[in-house]
């Protein structure tokens, strides 16, 4: 089985790209391999019964030791197409957990834009549309890919904050939500289901992410520790809550799209009650 699984293994040179890989010395690449936990990820892939496809979400969660509880799943009408809009406290666990939940109700019928680092995970590549949150450069075809996703029969999961929660003035804070998902809801006539995930990242991640902002670095140093955060969640049980669907017709011209985005964000905060211990969000 290992031979078949090997084609899904991650390689640091492939992740970095040919140009950058040639420029970096070996010790830097070794450091990045450790920070990205490539040894552990590849070990998980080699041992997986389902090294690719939606089944890998469960394989990864089991390998790391993450469990979850679900609330509000009875509110989901499986005969309709939705945009699921969720908070983004962690960066990796919520995507894997919601993927595991969607496997139970939609099989492989969902897609999600993710950060470009997670997007390198070949085992789940068919479900992910990589969005570059490390720098300002985006895939030129991103608009076309998003359009194709929304026109399909797939369910769409979006994290409108675009980046993981940060700490400001001593409080862990969900970043302002971008408005695009509101216009997508109207354009494709998809109701929005609010989703809340419990938990938050460590102080180390918060520190380096905030330092990158203060120093106005083009690269978010905190992203290098995002996979660390995933593996450090061993033994953690998360709670995922689905709220009532918000009809796409709700998003009329009585508010701006930014205000409607804030409206949905507040709905997500409301359903967080009883969803595990939370910091001040």
Brief characterization of the structure:
The protein has 281 residues and is of the alpha/beta class. The chain is built from twelve helices and nine strands.
Helix-strand layout with pairing:
Elements: H1 2-5, H2 12-16, H3 18-23, H4 26-35, H5 38-47, H6 55-64, E1 67-71, E2 82-86, H7 93-106, E3 110-115, E4 128-131, H8 142-151, E5 155-158, E6 166-168, E7 171-173, H9 180-187, E8 191-197, H10 203-214, H11 226-231, E9 237-242, H12 257-270
Parallel strand pairs: 1-9, 2-5, 2-8, 3-4, 3-5
Antiparallel strand pairs: 6-7, 8-9
Helix pairs in contact: 6-7, 9-12
Question: Describe it for me?
Answer:
With 281 residues, the chain is of the alpha/beta class. It is 39% helix and 15% strand. The chain has helices at 2-5, 12-16, 18-23, 26-35, 38-47, 55-64, 93-106, 142-151, 180-187, 203-214, 226-231, 257-270; strands at residues 67-71, 82-86, 110-115, 128-131, 155-158, 166-168, 171-173, 191-197, 237-242. The chain has a seven-stranded mixed beta sheet, sandwiched between helices. The longest helix has 14 residues, at 93-106. It starts with a helix and ends in an 11-residue tail after the last helix.
